[in-house]
Write a structure and sequence with these properties.
The chain is 64% helix and 7% strand. The chain is globular and about 55 Å long. The chain is mainly alpha-helical.
């Protein structure tokens, strides 16, 4: 393949369109969450991921798993956890079976904020997708997002 290969160009154009769609959606959701709830997209995502933990087998996430879920480095995730902990939205505690492990749970205040912010997030996502669907190069990607089903 050469740099001018039509297949490579199409692939690059597809990647650019996907990147553009992601950026537009994230920016739209960011504005809505910041304005209404003083939350960033990353903070919302972290609260959402951690709220899904449970006390059963494998129910608590290690920091690497959390970092992967919110698409941040482990150090950036740790800083984000600390910021939300300082705001009273998260609490850390030692793993009862492995004293080296530290778990993070969403506090009652964090759960309340997440519950209040979820409709804002969902509405902003819908608005961003509807707007992107008007663009011929983004409409097929919007369709894929709308039809995708992810199993937990």
């Amino acid at each position: 393949m050469t740099a001018t290969d039509p297949a490579l160009t199409a692939l690059a154009q597809g990647w650019c369109a996907l990147s553009l769609l992601h950026g537009r959606i994230e920016a739209h959701i960011e504005r809505a969450l910041q304005t209404k709830h003083d939350l960033s997209v990353r903070e919302y995502s972290l609260l959402d991921v951690l709220s899904r933990q449970h006390d059963g087998e494998g129910g608590h996430l290690q920091m690497k798993q959390v970092a992967d879920a919110v698409v941040l480095s482990q150090s950036a995730t740790t800083r984000l956890v600390t910021r939300l902990e300082d705001r009273g939205l998260l609490a850390r505690y030692l793993c009862p079976t492995d004293r080296r492990g530290i778990y993070t749970n969403v506090s009652e205040a964090g759960l309340k904020l997440l519950e209040e912010a979820r409709p804002t997030n969902d509405s902003a996502l819908r608005e961003a997708l509807d707007e992107a669907a008007k663009s011929p190069e983004l409409a097929p990607l919007v369709h894929v997002v709308e039809s995708a089903s992810v199993s937990a």
